[in-house]
Amino acid sequence: MEENTKGDGRLTPADEKDLPAAPIHKSGFVNIVGNPNVGKSTLMNDLVGERISIITQKAQTTRHRIMGIVNTPEYQIVFSDTPGVLKPKYKMQEGMLAFSEGALTDADILLYVTDVVEDPTKNADFLAKVAKETIPVLLVINKIDLLKGQGELEEIVERWRKLLPQAEIFPTSAKEHFNVTALMNRIVDLLPAGEPYFGKDALTDKPARFFVTEIIREKILLNYDKEVPYSTEVIVEKFEEKDNAIHIMAVIYVERDSQKGILIGRQGSMLKKVGTEARKDIEKFFGKSVFLELFVKVEPNWRNRENKLRQFGYIE
């Protein structure tokens, strides 16, 4: 190496040639798609390491596209959880499907999630679009903890290998955290070089109010049956945050008076139960005490009304 003859501590061009190259930062969008109830949200939360998406055993739990961001000094991964792919019956579900199909167009890496009991031919049109992808596709076969033996898994893997021959296959159990670390390592390997898309302290792209609505909606899904949970939408009308407390006022919209009665319950008992359960989770999420007020309003046929769907965030 040539000596620095300047004597002032500055590097000469010769010195700079011998310096180690700066580490390359990686950044990319990893979008999670698949049919309803295969464990996409559970997987997302496990990969992110935080409870970003609500989880229930009911289909259509996830209605919006939700981002969860993982940051290290070396990389930033922007995960997107999307609604389960379905054939729309309402305009609201058309908006949900648009979120899922949009995830095919802006991903750097695609995670297609299935499970060990799903019919592979379900929603074949969407699967055909995934098969045409030129970006890396990682096929996640979730819930393998439900299988009785290795032979069953091998049959499922072979079946999917024919449907998505270009995909790398990862048998996992997101619930048990089995093989999720290997999946994460492969995602990091495949990330393109690039600067962060969000600040390095960002966890999600959603505002605080969004997570309040999701927690309330989760409690509705867990406490009511049949059509009632699917006919509801939650809007936060007041979110007043102080140093140690948050005052929240939220409205639960339903489509019919009969649904309003069921949601409130006798002498308000059911709504009180939902409010108590939601408040505890909201307090845990924000680390502050919460005063939560819930109201129920009837908005007829809101799932098919474009103005309401725009207001509720299903149409941009």
Could you describe the 3D structure shown?
The structure is a single chain. Strands 2-3-1-4-5-6 form a six-stranded mixed sheet, with helices on both faces. The protein has a three-stranded mixed sheet with strand order 7-8-9. Strand 4, helix 4 and strand 5 form a beta-alpha-beta unit. Helix 7 packs across helix 9. The longest helix is centred in the C-terminal third of the chain and has 18 residues, at 269-286. The chain starts with 12 loop residues before the first helix and ends in a 5-residue tail after the last helix. It is globular. It has 316 residues and is an alpha/beta fold. Helices cover 34% and strands 22% of the residues.
Tell me the distance between the termini.
59 Å
Percent range for β-strand residues:
15-25%
Give the CA-based shape.
globular
Average of pLDDT = 90
Structural class: alpha/beta
Largest sheet: 6 strands, mixed
**What value does the Rg take, in angstroms?**
23 Å
